[in-house]
Amino acid sequence: MILCLCKDGKLCKRKHNLVAVINGGAEVIRGICENITLNGSLSYDPETGDNMGMSFTWRYGSIPTNNYSSLQLLEQGSFTSVNLSAMQNEGLSFGRATTVNANVTNDNETIIVNLTVAKDYRTASVIQIVHLVKGYPPKIYQRCLINCRQKVIPSVKLSIESICQGSQCSNITSYRWILYEENPCDQIVRKRRNYLKLMASTPLDSKRIVIKDKSLIGGKNYRLTVLVRTTDDFMGMSAFEFSAALPPSGGTCTIEPASGIALTTYFNLSCSNWTNYSIPLSYQFRYRLHNGLTSVVYHGLNNSVVSQLPSGDMSHNFTLNFTVTVTDSNGASTTYVDLSVQVRLFKHITSEVIGSHLNDLIKLDDLHRAVQVANTLLQAISRESTLAHSEIAKNKELIVEKIAAFQVKNLPDLLESSSVLGSALEDEDTVSLQSLVFSLSAIDWMTSLLMSKAQAKNITEIPLIRKAAENLFSSLNNMLKAGAVFASENSDSIQASGARFVR
Fold first, then answer.
1. Checking DSSP bridges between strand 27-31 and strand 122-133, what pairing results, if any?
2. What is the pLDDT of residue 502?
3. Contact partners, residue 338, CB within 8 Å, separation at least 6
4. Are 241 and 25 in contact (CB under 8 A)?
5. How many CA atoms are closer than 13 Å to the CA of 346, on its beta-carbon side?
6. Of 324, 342, 373, 444, most Cβ neighbours within 10 A?
7. CA atoms of 254 and 334, how far apart (whole Å)
8. How many C-beta atoms surround the C-beta of residue 35 within 10 A?
9. Interatomic CA distance for residues 500 and 443, integer angstroms
10. Do strands 333-344 and 259-261 pair parallel, antiparallel, or not at all (unpaired)?
């Protein structure tokens, strides 16, 4: 279900639209000497993730050559969308797949196929253009690897690979990728974009193409075509039509009050006036510590949150910089970065005050609150000049033990926990062996979680995956440095220490 605006202006729920798909894409080349198989099994209902209960209706027929751009014109620079009213010799069939006898047609003729899928009150349609040529051209398909939702997210790279079927596949000598963009002044005409080479991180003559993140424009309609040629001069093609999602826009975000005291002042972080057709919107409030590590205050559907905060960067007048990401239901996001607040440490930093906060930390059973206290304590410990190295190491050990004990269930949890571990391990001279043991176990678990999230290829999580990877890399780097220092300072018992560390 998705939220939408009803006629009375209120929010209401409705089912997602069906998605109709014909294997091969919007345009293909097939041989006149073989039957044409039309397959709609990739169509699906987003509510269930499959096509169970959906009906499939196929309509197909030929169109005059003057009704559609030729393949030569397609290669050169533009094409015109097909006119369905020009369809002749119509045929009708039903089912997920059907077969058209190409022998009844002429070579160099074009067939238009229209698939309509239906379920309950919902319907969806898609068109495929089939160019008929002599012989047995390779059957080319496109398979999406990354950014494969119904709408492509501009802030995430798009990865597509070509797949070939048929006896000619081993004879392919060249690939060529072409991108077309809809003309806003004439929506039936699509123009070739000559800057695809700058947009892609892969050669345009390779089997796979990767279009860089932030290269596509939100709200635009595109067609990505791959053309192949064989040693026998057969040509194959597949065209993938898609829309780039339009991210949320028009809003602002604020933090009030503008300054306060760590672990004492309650700050109100809020966003307003963000609009988008694909609702609901989700909000993520992240802050950056003085050492570059990232942590999260809130991630969810609420556009505001009241929270205490850790202290800011002492070298920049205790400034704590925030990044807010607003994301729609498709995964398209906008990042709001012009947000900062001054969060000072508590006034009197003594070993007794630090000890009191440590006792409070040990009693906490909420990860979010524990991270705020832990990051503030780590800054306070670094400022307290009367503390001996051994006492600092012991305090850090208590902090690391507490944070490592929390179960990390998701990426926001991972960011919060790793921000503490990375900070606690930063000064290798004040890291105990036990802190290394606690950290190793926690980082190992978080690395496994990060890998599973990355392999899932959920594009809405990619920004968090990147930040989590940065945090884990920094934490692991600090841990290795601290381990090296500890080993060098305890060379007499290095074998015993190493055995304990490995365990």
1. parallel
2. 47
3. none
4. yes
5. 19
6. 324
7. 15
8. 11
9. 17
10. parallel
